[in-house]
Amino acid sequence: MIAIINTGCANINSVRFAFERLGVTPEVITAPEKLARFERAILPGVGHANVAMKRLNEQGWAEAIADYQRPLMGICLGMQLLCESTEEGDIPCLGRIPGKVELLETNELTAPHMGWNNLRVVKPHALTTGLSEQDQVYFVHSFAHTINQSTLVSGEYGQAFSAIVANDNYAGMQFHPERSGKVGAQLLQNFINWQL
Amino acid sequence: MLSKRIIPCLDVKDGQVVKGVKFQGHEVVGDILDLAQRYSEAGADELVFYEISASVEKRLLDVNWVAEIARHINIPFCVAGGIKSVADAARVLEQGADKISINSPAIARPELIKELHDEFGKQCVVVGVDSFYDKQTQEYLVYQLTGDPNAASRTRYKTQEWVKRVQDLGAGEIVLNCMNQDGVRNGYDIAQLSAIRALCKVPLIASGGAGSMQDFVDVFKQTNVDGALAASVFHKGVIEIPKLKQFLINNDVAARQ
């Protein structure tokens, strides 16, 4: 059973529907003490890091997520919140994935980075199964995790950044797999199949 | 490389997709979900739904179909129609829409853009601009309430100044509807889009005038817009999306296949 962590500021429905299209019915949970019962969990996120981090701390999610031993994956802002810190509001985050989230230097390109872009696998992993160089996924973000030892897949827009990261039982996808067509469905299936 | 986005636009009225010419005389094209699924499977990069009568009738769009789209579609989609407040936008986004687009309500109360930006983040906030080229004064002028020919009217804004303003207020994307071109399939308004591109730092989407596959190549190569929106050429089967994508690639335009 998959839990979707609802902090009250994320677009929960599109993630829930994406799993339902794969034949899995996730449960949306609002109480941190419930998390331990689930086999895997998703931390979605849209909006501002400041607001989301505040809610995670106030509602007791920070400890529940730190104690969790099974696969837990953040999506978009959810991924950024699992890292050490973010430049968006200059705040510390959950620290489950090594590395910092910084403003994407897009130079003359339009910002935010919005649209379909390529992926490059730098470290094969259960989460990268079936990915090929032609595959594109849907990104919408202004900040990104700087490439380090946790980076499984990189993306490029003005500069290289982490598109998929993993550390122990924690992982994150910067793009929106729930809105990335067949490629995104494959990546969510990879998460369902991921064994520690 | 970031792909140029191909965005079918579905004008919604009374629960069905409709299409008019130059924003007037609407005819029914088909069912919302059927068309959305067809375009999604054909390789559309994103979908935009405008409930065209909502602003004119001073009400929020019907959110029931938004949830149905979110349930079945696995590409991003944007929804517009009578969103006048943060509460309205929340209702639409809760159903699973990825972005909301505002047009006439932003003209009535520009601070709405900032409020939406602060609550949901820049990436959610699209501002649609209906721009009309006045041949006599040779100016681009912003119009409002274009969903109904009887209600449509000129605003006090020139297009350039309005585009700058909405960016300052926090718009994350701008869709520029060039009204003179709408539905007539004579090609996108290259001159106007180039002028706006020069002052638009956020993603800019071209709208109005697509008639042939070459029109898409021209707008991407000559104006560097991020996406191109079209309705009638897709609804009437004049252009098939997979062929269009291949044509773009053959002409060195980055496209997703």
Q: CATH topology of chain A, anyone?
A: Rossmann fold
> So what's the CATH class of chain A?
Alpha Beta
- Which strand order do you get reading across the main beta sheet of chain B? 1-4-5-6-7-10-11-12
Q: Report the radius of gyration of chain A as a whole number of Å.
A: 15 Å
What form of chain B results from the Cα inertia axes? globular
Number of helices of chain B: 11
Number of helices of chain A: 5
> Could you give the distance between the termini of chain B?
13 Å
- Could you name the ranges of chain A where pLDDT drops below 50 across 5 or more consecutive residues? none
Q: In whole angstroms, how far apart are the ends of chain A?
A: 16 Å
Major sheet characteristics of chain A? 8 strands, mixed
Structure characterization notes:
The complex is a heterodimer of chains A (196) and B (257). Chain A is an alpha/beta fold and 196 residues long. The model of chain A has no long low-confidence stretch (mean pLDDT 95). Chain A has helices at residues 12-21, 49-58, 61-67, 77-82, 181-193; strands at residues 2-5, 27-29, 40-43, 72-75, 83-86, 91-92, 97-103, 113-118, 120-121, 136-141, 143-145, 151-157, 159-167, 170-173. In chain A, the strands form three sheets. Chain A has an eight-stranded mixed sheet. In chain A, strands 6-5-7-11 form a four-stranded mixed sheet. In chain A, strands 8-10 form a two-stranded antiparallel sheet. Chain A has one domain: Class I glutamine amidotransferase (GATase) domain (Rossmann fold), CATH 3.40.50. By secondary structure, chain B is an alpha/beta fold. Chain B has one domain: TIM Barrel (Alpha-Beta Barrel). Chain B contains eleven helices and twelve strands. Chain B has helices at residues 32-42, 52-56, 64-72, 86-94, 104-108, 111-120, 159-169, 190-197, 213-223, 232-235, 241-250, and strands at residues 5-13, 16-21, 24-31, 47-51, 77-80, 99-102, 125-134, 139-144, 153-158, 173-178, 204-207, 227-230. An eight-stranded parallel beta barrel of chain B has the order 1-4-5-6-7-10-11-12, surrounded by six helices. In chain B, helix 1 (32-42) packs parallel to helix 3 and helix 8 runs parallel beside helix 9.
